[in-house]
Design a protein that fits this description.
Strand order of the largest sheet: 1-2-3-4-6-9
Largest sheet: 6 strands, mixed
Helix content: 40-55%
Number of strands: 9
Number of helices: 11
Mean pLDDT: 91
Structural class: alpha/beta
Oligomer: single chain
Length: about 270
């Protein structure tokens, strides 16, 4: 259940909007619990999962951000406390639904971009780790701060962060719960790029424009290869890459791209 008041569209835990452009469609998903810094509830996690599925079917690029100047402060402690009264199993839907939404991002055929402002803590930080491209404001505050509250990561952070930044840095960060700036997140390899407040929206827009200018089929295959390759041996990944490359080069879009490069059109 959600702790959000109201039932109107503007009070939905996740807002979704499809922007039609000349070069494609952009899905804007907004975590919409600004009064709680977009803290995660069962309703928000479920709505995020549903919105991602719908967005991938309608748009070429998905942008996820938070309402009210913050990305996501993590799990909603009020909801956790309420569910905890009914025992550990009552909490399972909260974590499994959120983990499922984060994991879904890897399986979607479209690039998912996070536009991170303000706080991205605990579960919010885990969501940042799950997207394809994370863009952060330089003054954003990111952290896996579970240990600071006697908690442990429950949204995938104990597994994703070591794969992104390496075991020593990940374990040190999770154990200590230190805060990172947007610049730190880029330096650590958690985020792709950062910008100051007055240049952040331009960074997001330029990234979206760049992605819209690419062949959607190529983007989907690249994403599938990278994501899938992380789950298996290098040799299997290289074989999959060769097979995917041959299949892709047999397509008309790849032929057109080669034609542009060589100055010829495919016949």
């Amino acid at each position: 259940m959600s702790t959000d008041p109201g039932t109107g569209p503007d009070t939905a835990p996740v807002l979704s909007r499809i922007e039609e452009r000349a070069d494609g469609r952009v899905a804007h998903l907004t975590l919409n619990r600004p009064q709680a810094r977009n803290a995660i509830t069962v309703a928000l996690a479920g709505a995020l999962h549903a919105a991602l599925v719908a967005a991938a079917a309608e748009a070429d690029v998905v942008v996820v951000r938070g309402a009210g100047g913050h990305f996501c402060a993590g799990g909603d402690f009020h909801e956790v406390s309420r569910l905890r009264e009914d025992g550990p199993e009552a909490l399972r839907p909260l974590f499994e639904t959120f983990v499922g939404a984060c994991q879904l991002i890897a399986d979607l055929p479209v690039p998912v971009v996070a536009a991170v402002e303000g706080y991205a803590m605990a579960g919010g930080f885990e969501l940042v780790q799950s997207v394809d491209i994370a863009l952060v404001r330089e003054d954003a505050v990111l952290a896996d701060n579970h240990a600071n509250f006697g908690m442990i990561p429950g949204g995938g952070g104990s597994q994703r962060l070591p794969r992104i930044v390496g075991t020593p840095r990940a374990l040190g960060h999770i154990l200590l719960g230190d805060r990172l700036s947007g610049r730190d997140a880029v330096d650590w390899g958690i985020a792709y790029a950062c910008a100051p407040a007055d240049g952040f929206e331009a960074l997001v827009e330029n990234t979206v424009v760049n992605l819209l200018g690419k062949d959607p089929g190529a983007l989907a295959r690249i994403k599938q290869l990278v994501r899938g390759g992380l789950d298996g041996p290098l040799g299997d990944g290289l074989s999959a890459e060769t097979a995917a490359t041959l299949a892709h080069l047999d397509g008309e879009r790849a032929g057109a791209g080669i034609g542009r490069f060589t100055g010829r059109t495919r016949t």
